[in-house]
Structure formats: C-alpha cells, structure tokens
Design a protein that fits this description.
The protein has 13 helices and twelve strands. With 347 residues, the chain is α/β, with parallel strands linked by helices. It has one domain: Alpha-Beta Barrel (TIM Barrel), CATH 3.20.20.70. The strands form two sheets. It has a nine-stranded mixed β-sheet with strand order 1-2-3-4-5-6-7-8-9. The structure holds pyridoxal-5'-phosphate and iron/sulfur cluster. Iron/sulfur cluster binds next to loops.
Length: 347
C-alpha cells in the first residue's frame, strides 16, 4: 500500500468513532450511514473545530438526509444521458466520464449521492467501452474525468485511462475533477504529478467550499500540480450553513487565488434527494456574487450557475447590473451608482 492508501484506510467510517472525539450523540446516524456511506479522512476531520461547524456539516451524516423524500435521486437525468455506462454525453463537444465511484470524504451534499460509495469501480471492460465511444465520436474534443474521485484510482490505472484518451486524435483537452487536494492532500504525490504532466493539455478542477479547507497541506498539493504545468480551477457548491455568506465566500475566493487556483464555478445546489437541508435561494447566491464583483480581484469571481433539471445544461446567473430604459441602458456599479449608457441603434 502507498502512504496515501494507508491514510485513506485510517479514515473514520462509522458514526460511533466520532463520539470518542466530540460530545455528540452519533447513535441515530447509523441509519443514515446505511443508506449513504460515510468516510472522513483524518486530515479533513482535523479541520473540524466544533460539531455543527462548516466542515462538520459537509462530512458528518445528518438525519435530515433521510427526511428529504421530495427530490429525485438523479434530477439531471445523468443515467438517461449515458450512451455507455459511466459516460454522460449532454453537450455537443464534451463528455463527463465517471472513472471512480469512491471518494476520500463522502460529502453529505453530493449531487451523485445515489451512486458514490455504492457501486464497484468501473472495471477495464467498461473503460474500453467508454474509450471506444469517445474514439467513435469525432465531435468530442473535451473529456471531463469525474466520479466519485478520479484521483482515488492508483497511478497506473489513471495512466492507462489518460494514455487511452491520448490515442484518440480528435480529443483536445482532458479535465480532471477532484476533491483530494481538500480531503486527502497526501494523494498529490511527486510521482502522480510526474505521470500527469505527460498528458498535457490537462486541466484540474478542484473543490474547495470554505476558507478553512485551505491549509498548508492543501496549498502544497496545489503547488505541486501547478508546478507540473496543470492549470487549476475550483468548483464550489453554495451550501447553507457552510459558505452562504458574502464575507466567507470572498475570503475563500481570495485564498484560492493565493494557492494558484482560479475560481471557475459556484454551483447552485442540485435538487438531489437527501440534500435539501443544504439549499439556499437563488437570491442568496446573487447577493454573494454581488459581494465579489468590484469588491475584490475580478479573477476571484466564479460563474454562478444552475444546472437545469433533465440534463438541459448549466446556466450562468448574474446580479441585475443592467436594465433598459428606452434607448439607454442603465448600469449599476458595484457601489450602487446608476450610470446611463447610450447604446448604438442597429435596427
Ligand atoms: C458540467 C458538465 C460539463 C462541463 O461543463 P463546462 O461548462 O464545459 O465546464 C459537461 N458535461 C456535463 C454532463 C456536465 O454536467
Ligand atoms: S468529492 Fe465530489 S463526488 Fe465525492 S462525495 Fe464529494 S461532491 Fe460527491
């Protein structure tokens, strides 16, 4: 076993292990874990300051997960949009390929809650089917490796996947979505980075949700990836009681830039069963976006996006900075001043 695998094996997977660390009644959570698995790495556990805080809420099971029966397990119709198992082809020129069904930490708000930690990892057979599909579709120029967490695969499995993709002449870029820089930073080894850099152009999008997730260890992990020439982006999820606050979000985005990670998306929660207690209103999200633009580096502003039900795609949202008044546009500055702009008439 590698060091990171040993660390992963030392994770907390049962609620009663928490009662030795915190004064909480974890007995009722056993029911939750039967339905939705739990795993918290020692690294991530160490970020909890007290029960119920922003880190705790993201990783410790909650009875509310079982009370939410209103929403669908797969509102984005990902299973419907799968031409071969594990491949989601929703947009014309790019696909998502689920190359893992496990994660270092099982986030309680996960949009793929229905499948993470539950089914076996996609084996070599389905890998070949996915590669064959991508190879047979010349319009696919971008593959997003997702899961679960792609980087929980061992280096040689990942290398096989990336090498297989690089044999496809029409494929231009590969992206990897991973949360291990946050949850298991030890996974980002020098060996992994040496392997990854053979497959450029390669992009990595990581997933930080709170300023306290940015630690010396996660900063080191991101520095290693960036030093391997991999542009780093971040996809956060807007989460009630975690980061639904303009000051918290601004600090998160600023700290991301300081560890060479460029904010990419801020996702509105999907309507996934078992996650309703994390949802905020769209207005809250717009207010948070307002708190970024103009108030701090423009590079710290991600796209705030809603992923439409039924797999209709992501739609970006902006606060109302502009309205029309006859032949003029009225713009609102980040400070709230209204400035008139005379548009050209092309009719
Ligand atoms: C989010 C997503 C993508 C990638 O979208 P970008 O806006 O290009 O980052 C591709 N396919 C699916 C199914 C997605 O959900
Ligand atoms: S790391 Fe991503 S895929 Fe895994 S549980 Fe968290 S949100 Fe879901």
């Amino acid at each position: 076993m590698n060091r990171w695998q040993k660390l992963l094996a030392g994770s907390v997977v049962a609620p009663d292990e928490l009662s030795s660390l915190f004064t909480v009644d974890t007995e009722p959570l056993v029911q939750v874990v039967k339905r939705y698995p739990m795993r918290i790495t020692r690294h991530y556990l160490g970020l909890i300051e007290k029960p119920g805080d922003a880190i705790w809420r993201q990783c410790v099971p909650d009875l509310l997960e079982l009370e939410d029966e209103s929403q669908a397990e797969d509102p984005l119709d990902e299973e419907q949009l799968s031409p071969v198992p594990g491949l989601i082809h929703r947009y014309p020129d790019r696909v998502v390929w689920l190359v893992s069904s496990v994660c270092a930490v099982y986030c309680r708000f996960c949009m793929r809650k229905r499948r993470v930690g539950c089914t076996g990892i996609a084996g070599p057979g389905t890998r070949q089917a996915a590669l064959a599909y991508i190879g047979a579709h010349p319009e696919i120029r971008d593959v997003v490796l997702s899961g679960g967490d792609p980087l929980l695969n061992e280096d040689d499995v990942l290398e096989e996947i990336l090498a297989g993709l690089r044999l496809i002449p029409h494929l231009e870029i590969v992206r990897i979505g991973t949360r291990v820089p946050v949850t298991l930073p030890e996974r980002i080894t020098a060996g992994l980075c040496r392997m990854l850099k053979k497959f450029h152009p390669l992009y990595i999008n990581t997933h930080f949700n709170h300023p306290r997730e940015i630690t010396a260890a996660s900063a080191r992990a991101c520095a290693r990836l960036a030093d391997a020439g991999i542009p780093l982006g971040n996809q956060s999820v807007l989460l009630k009681g975690v980061n639904d606050d303009p000051q918290v979000m601004k600090r998160l985005m600023q700290l991301l830039l300081s560890i060479r990670v460029r904010p990419y998306y801020l996702h509105q929660m999907d309507l996934v069963k078992g996650t309703a207690h994390f949802r905020t209103s769209i207005n809250r999200g717009l207010e948070i976006m307002e708190g970024l633009r103009g108030h701090t580096s423009g590079m710290a502003s991600p796209y705030y996006a809603v992923d439409l039900a039924g797999g209709k795609g992501k739609v970006p949202l902006l606060p109302g900075y502009v309205r029309r008044e006859d032949d003029a546009l009225l713009f609102r500055s980040y400070r709230g001043e209204v400035v008139r702009y005379r548009d050209v008439d092309e009719s």
